[in-house]
Every structure is written in C-alpha cells, then in structure tokens.
Write a structure and sequence with these properties.
The structure holds two protein chains of two kinds. Chain A is of the alpha+beta class. Chain A is 22% helix and 33% strand. Chain A folds into two domains: 19-259, Rossmann fold (3-Layer(aba) Sandwich); 267-392, OB fold (Dihydrolipoamide Acetyltransferase, E2P) (Beta Barrel), CATH 2.40.50. Chain A has nine helices and 21 strands. By secondary structure, chain B is mainly alpha-helical. The chains are: A alpha+beta, B mainly alpha.
C-alpha cells in the first residue's frame, strides 16, 4: 500500500471478505497494580476475516472477546496489527494508520448497552446523526423506531424501559448510523429466549438489504447453537476453531473447545488395540490419580494412530445413557458396570457421578432420576456409543 | 451591618465561582481522564491550598504581583497599576485559594460516569469535545453545581489570602470576614456578632443546599 493512500487499500479481501482483522496486544498487568501475577498477564493474538452476515465470536469470559471488539472499534489500541473494513484500512501499525473511533463507521452494541441516561429514546437514537440536517435526522430516527417497534417509547428515558426495550433501543441506535460493520457484545445475555429470538429475526431482516458483517460475541453455547452461524472460538487470546456450530461444538478437536462446548468427561487415555475390521479402537482411560480407580476400556472410533499412542477422550455428560439393569441387544459398544457415587441437582437437570473404575458425569432429567430411583450406592450400567467418544487434541499450555 | 462589605464579598464570590467553573472544567477533565503517569503531581498541586496556610499563598501572590516578577510587570504595563491591593488581585488570589473546592467535585463526578457511555458516544461519531458537552457535562450537573456552590462559599468566608493580598481598603478589598476582624479589634462585639451571624447563615445555607443536591433530596431546585 502506498503511503500516500492513507486509509485506502484500493481493493477488498482476496477471499471476498469484508473485514480483515489482525490484532496483537499484550497486557502485562492492570495499570497501577505492581503485583502482576502470571494470571493477570494476557496476550491477545488473533487473525480472522469476515464476510457479510452474522459470525459468532465464542469464548469464556476473559478470553479476549471484548478486547477484540474494542480493537476493531478503535477503543483499544493494539500493540500491532492491521484492520481493514471494505476498502478502508482502519488500523495499520506498520503504516502508522489509526483512524479515530468516531470515524470508523462501526456500530457497537455494548454488553451494558450504555444508553445515555439523560436523553430520551428518540434522542439516544438520534445521537449518532448529529451531522445530518434535522429533517433527515428525524426521518431516519422515525424509520428505525418503526422497524424496531419502539415508536411508542420515543419520549421515555432509559430508566423507564424494560430489559428487552432497552436492548432494542441500543440496537436501533447503532444501526441508524448505517454502520459498515456491526459489533454485538453479548447483546442478548439478559433476555428471555422468545424475546431473544424476535430480536435476532429483526436483526437478520434488517441486514438482508444491507449485507454488512455482524460480529456477535457470546459465551453461551445455547446461543451459538440457536444462531447457527459460523463460529470463531476464542480462548486465552487465541482463535482455536472456526466453523459451523455443529462442527465446532458437536465434534470438537481440541480439549479447550470441548470444555467450552460442555464436555464434562475428559480423560487421558492410551490406545491399546486397533480393530480395523470393526472401525473402532480400544482406549484405556487412565484415572487422574492412581488412587481414583483402576481405569476402564472404551471403544472409540478408529483414528490414524498407533497402538500405545496417548490420546484424550471427551464424552458429553448428556450423551451417556444410564440403566439400572444390565442392558442387552444394543448397538452401543460400551456398556460399563458401576455404582452411583453422588447426585447433584442443577437448575432443572441432575448430574450423577458414576464410578465405573473411573468416575463419569452423567446428565439426566429429574423425571428420569425419579423413575430409576437413583440413590448413591445403587449399581448401574452406563451405555456410551462409540461415536460419542471424541478424540481431543490436548490443550496447548 | 456593613452593606458595602457584604456587597463586595458577594461580588468577589460570584466572580471567583464563575471563573473557577470555566477553569475547573478543563482541569478536572484532564485530571480525571489523562493517562499521563505524572498527573498525580498536578493533582497534588491543585490540592495545595487545602493544607497551606493562606498567609503563605498570600505572600507568594504579593511577590508575584510585585514589580520584580514578570507577571507583575506585565500586569502593570497593561493596566497601569499593580494587582496587589485591588479587587482584581483579590479575584486572582481567591481563584487559587478555592481551586480544590471547584476541581475536586468535578473530578469526582467525571469519574462517576460510566466509561462505556463515553465509549458509546465516541463510537457513534462524536469527537472528544462533543462527547464532553453532550454526555459528560450533562451527567455531571450536580458535580458542577457543587463546585460552584463550594467555591462560592469558600471564597465568601475567606480571610487570610484577602488580608495579605487585598489589605483592608473599604469598598475595594474589605470583605465581611475582614470586617469582623476589625470590629473585634475595635471592641465592638455587638456588630461583630451581627456580621458573624450573616456569614454563618449564608455559609450554612449553601452547604445545606449542596448536601441536599448530592443526596438527591430535590430533583429540581428546592424552591421550585
């Protein structure tokens, strides 16, 4: 890029992407706290490209999601990197480009929404339209109030709105400026599922005509699965996976993604036998400590591994069946005998810990628990399908 | 009751409070939002009048106003007379002396604003200056009112700096508090009592108002 063409690269991405992001940032410690421990040190290092439409940025809290959004919006200064939106370079540490936040044409809906408490709904929405003439500003504000069905609230203050209404106003305020990119930071975290669904439908309808990239940040896997769009998995400042939710969360290849996706059972294992004819291999699960049990053999899908190889096996607690009598005539290759070691109530689910030589977590409904009469000490059988055993790449340390 | 002194004191307090609002806003903004490492030095300097004897401040002001200082020479060349023992000199002294009373409430109310609101304003296309006038200032209204009221009240009851810088010239630099001193010295306790009561009453009324605002006792002005 020529130094004279500040802010312009002259072309879009080679792969048709609309937004290219490369950001590196180190946090040595919180400013002013000399007691920087290993935990407070954190480095963000991400590189991704977005097409038009919704992309999910998924990760646990503290993974660097909000920092990534901040860098794109210009609220956080990266140490190095390059950010391109359409044919504009917003940030380039090498070329010394750093477009001011106010000129990036980025819509940002904050997790806290950040509605201006001293302004009415109408004036909140009109806030970003200051440069327009008054009639045009009023026309656009009226239009978006209409399409987000919040026209009746125009004179209210933020404090006089419900959670769902506030969310709509925040979204409308960002969209009315016609941004070239929309950043949503857990925008629906506080909402009920039906309200959430309607708001997402409204957002998709709005974007059909405009086709801008929307980066949707969430830490909830339910939300990822409900949205069903391409998901980027961010953990400890790095992107671990990229794909459709079913691919990424349904069959995770990395242990960190598996934990994020809710794999309660993750074990160290060793391949002890390969069965080419039946398409399986036997993995011996090793207890975390020698005292914790003798270990157990499981049939997992055949992988290109040698006998003796060390692997990690992940099994979702919800994928394990539990029986109080020995089952027969099943397709499942793994039927393990054990005893209930403990039962834990969680919201509207029950988590049973079952000791089969190694302790598994099994998720049940309260109804199933009652029907089976589960109590600690009861002998049970666990049934695990071969394809519920996921081989994981160990977490990078 | 010395009405001349009361009028002069009110005028001095009004001038000082107005000037401090104008000077205090950018200063407080800088203290609240600057990322500079050494900003604590400026914070400390701003708070100096809280702990320094007014006579020390007054002494340095007299030196600064004098013909041996560049500032004094500049003022004399410009106006034809020195700042010492004039009303303008009193205003300058009062501004410095009451500075922390204006800056501190402003800094506090700026820091109480949710930083996300400032980010939101910036992302929505507002410059830093526009963000200040459209978000920060409206949300700091009670802090600004406190700053004005406290600097007014502090100037209203000020004694040491006024005595050092202003002398005691009736109608020019004799304020109410100096009047009380003169009356006591002259043995006129009855008049001293009347004047003192006025000072006490005004100061108390202002503080009641400030504390009322800040606990949200009155959504609007108390008399509305």
């Amino acid at each position: 890029m020529a130094a004279g063409a500040v802010g312009m690269s002259g072309s879009g991405g080679e792969d048709g992407s609309v937004l290219d992001v490369f950001v590196r940032k180190r946090f040595s410690a919180t400013a002013g706290s000399p007691a920087a421990t290993q935990e407070t040190r954190f480095a963000l290092d991400v590189r991704f490209a977005l097409p038009a439409g919704v992309t999910i940025l998924f990760g646990s809290s503290g993974a660097g999601k909000t920092t990534t959004l901040g860098a794109i919006a210009g609220l956080v200064a990266p140490d190095e990197g390059r950010i391109r939106l359409n044919d504009r370079v917003l940030y380039d540490s090498k070329a010394g480009i750093d477009v001011d936040v106010s000129r990036r044409s980025v819509g940002y809906v904050f997790q806290e929404l950040a509605l201006f408490p001293h302004l009415s709904v109408e004036r909140n929405i009109g806030y970003g339209l200051r440069r327009l003439a008054k009639p045009e500003r009023q026309r656009r504000t009226g239009e978006i109030l209409e399409s987000f069905r919040i026209g009746a609230l125009r004179r209210r203050l933020a404090a006089e709105l419900s959670g769902g209404e506030r969310q709509r106003v925040a979204l409308a305020r960002a969209l009315v400026t016609r941004p070239a990119l929309l950043l949503l930071d857990e925008p629906l975290a506080a909402l009920d599922a039906p309200i959430k669904g309607r708001l997402i439908d409204d957002l998709r309808a709005w974007n059909r005509a405009r086709a801008i990239p929307i980066l949707y940040v969430t830490h909830s896997r339910e939300e990822v699965l409900a949205l069903g769009e391409r998901v980027l998995v961010l953990e400890a400042g790095r992107l671990l996976a990229d794909g459709l939710p079913q691919e990424v969360l349904g069959a995770p290849r990395s242990e960190t993604v598996a934990q994020l996706a809710g794999f309660e059972n993750i074990f160290d294992a060793q391949v002890v036998a390969l069965h080419e004819d039946s398409g399986t291999m036997t993995c011996r699960l090793v207890p975390p400590e020698p005292a914790a049990g003798r270990g157990v053999d499981l049939e997992a899908p055949l992988a290109r591994l040698d006998s003796g190889a060390a692997v990690r096996v992940g099994i979702r607690a919800g994928d394990i069946l539990l029986a109080t009598e020995e089952p027969r005539g099943l397709s499942a290759r793994n039927v393990l005998r054990g005893a209930v070691a403990g039962i834990e109530e969680r919201d509207c689910q029950v988590l049973a810990r079952v000791d089969c030589g190694i302790t598994f977590s099994v998720l049940l409904t309260p109804g199933a628990r009652r029907a089976l009469g589960l109590v600690p000490g009861l002998p049970v059988w666990l049934i695990v399908k071969t394809h519920s055993c996921h081989l994981l790449r160990p977490a990078e340390r | 009751m010395n009405w001349e002194a009361l009028a002069l004191t009110l005028r001095l307090s009004l001038f000082t409070a107005a000037a401090l609002l104008v000077l205090g806003l950018p200063l407080a903004y800088w203290i609240a939002f600057s990322q500079r490492r050494w900003k604590f030095v400026l914070q400390a300097a701003t708070s100096l009048p809280l702990v320094m004897p007014p006579t020390v401040l007054g002494f340095y002001l007299l030196v600064a106003f004098g013909s041996s200082s560049p500032l004094g020479r500049l003022w004399t060349a410009w106006t034809g007379h020195t700042l010492a023992f004039t009303f303008a000199g009193l205003v300058v002294g009062s501004i410095l002396y009451s500075l922390p009373f204006a800056v501190q409430p402003l800094v506090n109310s700026f820091l109480a604003i949710d930083p996300k609101l400032i980010d939101a304003s910036r992302v929505l296309g507002a410059s830093r200056l526009a963000t200040f006038f459209r978000v920060i200032l409206p949300l700091s209204a009670s802090g600004a009112a406190t700053a004005v009221a406290l600097s007014f009240a502090h100037t209203f009851g000020e004694f040491g700096v006024v005595l050092m810088v202003g002398g005691d010239i009736p109608g020019v630099t004799r304020t109410v508090s100096i009047g009380v001193f003169d009356l006591v010295e002259a043995g006129n306790y009855a008049a001293a009592n009347t004047t003192s009561l006025v000072l006490l009453g005004v100061s108390f009324a202002i503080l009641v108002m400030v504390y009322g605002w800040n606990r949200g006792a009155w959504p609007r002005a108390p008399w509305a």
